[in-house]
Design brief:
Strand content: over 45%
Structural class: mainly beta
Shape: elongated
Distance between the termini: 66 Å
Largest sheet: 31 strands, antiparallel
Radius of gyration: 36 Å
């Protein structure tokens, strides 16, 4: 581009098309050519030429356009000799992508890409603002700035300071690498200096992920003493990354954490691991025992074999049962595969699943590791494999039918082994009878074979056939209303099954903690798993009611009970199938959308309707309150521990003002009068940051680890990440 070929326009309010200036210089009548026009279109109130110094001067609403890039100013001087332009007064450069840069005074080269500015500012990525006393821009996209301020907070015209900002003596923004690096940087919060760093670098808001140091985590703990954790993020490729997090501590040897993620064409995997060489230590950081290698691995992966088949894995293991609690490693109770684990139990699994239009199948290998004090690794089973497959048919007017096969192979170093294979079939259909009754007959049958450890079970094997035949009769009713629609559905289920279905020699594995409730009220086999089966005669009766208001509010409840023809000694009281009648079971829910949601399940003693079990959950996000709460109570009559159990969980936030909130939470074991975890704090939130000041206390005791208190300061800054301490125990 040659600025000497300016297309000059004075006194116009709109830019004329460039084609109007694309005629040949040698022949004014020649038609417009197809070659690219590299001239600048200039618009201003006044444009004149100064022949003494060979300059063109534009004044008043100046606008220069070149290849989609626009420069606006109050005054512009173009020097034909040096081919540079000098703009002053409300200077704005609008780039091709719509981004804007501002300056009090600007000197640029012929293509508007390089130059220097006084009183420079710019929006980066639409979320961040940078302002500097002066800036130099090179043609290769490197911007050097002096005495600058960077923030992702909105800039207020009333002069109010942003919530946070980085103030530095000098900084470089490299548009090619999309990194901003600072010298002598100070992090300010509400205008108050908080951290000083001689060097700081972070990606600009337009940047994709890249390698570099992440925000460090310093802190102090009664277990670890003073510690410092410095993560480094390594973007290995577009599809994988590694985060290495070494941590040095005052009381114990260093620990290194490594997290790895990778995406493949067919799936993805994620691994979280750490390792150290240290002895055991208690809540006060006192070490005991010998130093040895210790660590953990949590990971998962899922991959597609075909559109219908997938395989995956989950791995959970650690060298010590208190390792995660000593080093405050989270994630122990997450689901990492087809099956979920129980609290303080690790589960590693390898599995495959398949699902089509008329079939489902899965198979898995499972291995458990106990983290509880009473766990004996030799008594925890290895499952190899656990498998299930089902194929079903829609037979039109004749209903639905399916066949299934399954297996479970459990082995232990100490204790009973159990190998089971099963094959079954079931059928059901639904008919609408005169008067509006619904009639659903069904039948199911299954054969099981168990290969057992005779030393523990007394038998080398057990074979059995189980099954049920019966029907469910219901009478759904609905009453539409002006404001609310009401639905009622009384129903009864009657079934008869094989007697003596449960052989005492069969070890109970999958039905150990099963409890009959309203969800299985109309099931012929109320136990729902394989090791135990409900045969003989049974009758269930229940009522479901539902109300739907026109404004969207909904309420529903189900209440019912079950009777059996004779007791089965293999069912205990906790299963709710012992004896000849069950306790009353019920569930209720109420929903007002996000404003309020309530769910509850209850079990009432059949003898006196006393409370045997209650589970309740409530959540709300209404006005200035966001909270969730859960409460449970189990009577000693049905508790697996043989004593009553009661607890409550609360967590929420109350917005006191537009920016300040009270944060609260509690996990309390009411039965043992212990606060497993409680917290209260203050949070500040605005458009670009969140600050939290949290006090936490735990009264949990687990062998050598006892109660602890912590005080946490944590804040997250838009476009920079999280800062904060791990707390003070």
């Amino acid at each position: 581009m040659k600025w000497s070929h300016f297309a000059l326009m004075a006194g116009f309010s709109a830019v004329m098309p460039l084609a109007a200036y694309a005629q040949s210089d040698s022949d004014p009548a020649a038609p417009a050519t197809e070659t690219k026009d590299e001239r600048v279109v200039l618009e201003a109130d006044i444009v004149y030429e100064n022949t003494d110094d060979n300059t063109i001067i534009a004044e008043g609403n100046v606008e220069a356009l070149y290849n989609g890039r626009t420069l606006r100013a109050d005054r512009l001087i173009y020097n034909r000799t040096t081919e540079r332009a000098r703009a002053s007064g409300n200077v704005v450069i609008v780039d091709v992508d719509g981004s804007q840069q501002f300056a009090e005074e600007l000197d640029v080269g012929p293509d508007l890409t390089d130059g220097y500015a006084i009183g420079y500012s710019a929006r980066i990525g639409g979320t961040a603002t940078v302002a500097a006393n002066s800036a130099i821009r090179r043609a290769d996209g490197v911007n050097a700035m002096d005495q600058l301020v960077y923030t992702a907070c909105p800039i207020c015209e009333d002069g109010k300071k942003p919530t946070w900002a980085i103030r530095a003596r000098r900084a470089v923004l490299d548009e090619e690498s999309q990194m901003i690096s600072y010298r002598d940087a100070v992090l300010e919060v509400a205008g108050i200096p908080v951290f000083y760093l001689p060097y700081l670098a972070h990606p600009d808001p337009n940047s994709e992920r890249r390698s570099g140091f992440l925000v460090p985590t310093p802190g102090i703990s009664s277990k670890l003493g003073a510690f410092y954790k410095q993560p480094y993020y390594w973007a290995v490729s577009d599809y994988s990354d590694i985060t290495i997090s070494p941590m040095v501590s005052q009381n114990v040897n260093p620990l290194i954490g490594v997290d790895f993620r990778k995406r493949f064409y067919s799936g993805a995997l994620k691994l979280e691991t750490s390792f150290t060489h240290e002895a055991d230590f208690d809540s006060d950081g006192e070490t005991f025992g010998e130093e040895k290698f210790r660590g953990h691995i949590y990971g998962s992966g899922l991959f597609a074999i075909s559109p219908e088949w997938k395989w995956g894995f989950g791995v959970e293991t650690q060298t010590d049962d208190l390792y995660d609690r000593r080093y405050d490693i989270s994630g122990q109770n997450e689901q990492r595969g087809l099956y979920s684990n129980q609290p303080r139990r690790l589960l590693s699994q390898l599995f495959v699943t398949g699902q089509g239009d008329n079939y489902y199948a899965d198979a898995a290998l499972l291995n458990f590791q106990g983290l509880r004090g009473q766990d004996d690794a030799a008594r925890l089973p290895v499952v190899s494999p656990l498998a299930y497959a089902e194929k079903y048919w829609d037979m039109g007017a004749y209903g639905f039918a399916s066949v299934n096969v399954s297996s479970a192979v459990l082995t232990r170093d100490v204790g009973a082994d159990s190998h089971r294979v099963s094959a079954g079939a079931d059928w059901s259909t639904m008919k609408v009878l005169p008067g509006g009754f619904t009639f659903e007959p069904f039948a199911e049958a299954r054969g099981d074979y168990y290969a057992l450890d005779e030393d523990f079970s007394g038998k080398a094997s057990v074979a059995r056939a189980v099954g049920n035949v019966g029907a469910t009769l219901a009478y759904p009713m609905i009453r539409p209303g002006t404001h609310v629609d009401i639905m009622l559905e009384p129903a009864v289920m009657a079934a008869w099954g094989f007697s003596n279905a449960n052989d005492p020699a069969i070890p109970v594995e999958d039905s150990l903690l099963y409890e009959f409730d309203e969800s299985s009220l109309y099931e012929a086999n109320g136990i729902g798993n394989f090791d135990l089966y409900e045969g003989d005669g049974k009758l269930s009766a229940g009522l479901t009611a539902r109300a739907i208001w026109k404004n969207g509010i909904e309420a529903s409840t189900t209440l019912g009970r079950r009777w059996r023809s004779k007791p089965d000694p293999t069912f205990d009281v906790a299963s709710n199938l012992g004896g000849t009648s069950s306790d009353w079971v019920a569930a209720a829910s109420f929903s007002m959308g996000r404003k309020l949601e309530l769910d509850s399940r209850v079990r009432l003693n059949e003898a006196d309707l006393s409370l045997s079990r209650l589970d309740m959950r409530a959540s709300t996000s209404f006005s200035r309150l966001r909270a969730v709460g859960q409460y449970y109570k189990i009577d000693e009559r049905i508790s697996p521990s043989g004593r009553s159990d009661e607890g409550i969980y609360l967590r929420g936030e109350v917005q006191v003002t537009d920016t300040y909130s009270l944060v609260f939470g509690q996990l309390r074991d009411i039965s043992n009068n212990v606060n497993t975890r409680q917290e209260i704090g203050l949070a500040y939130t605005d458009d670009c940051s969140r600050f939290e000041l949290i006090y936490q206390r735990s009264e949990l005791r687990d062998r050598t680890l006892g109660p602890s208190d912590s005080f946490q300061i944590r804040f997250s800054l838009l476009s920079l990440g999280n800062f904060g301490s791990d707390g003070f125990d």
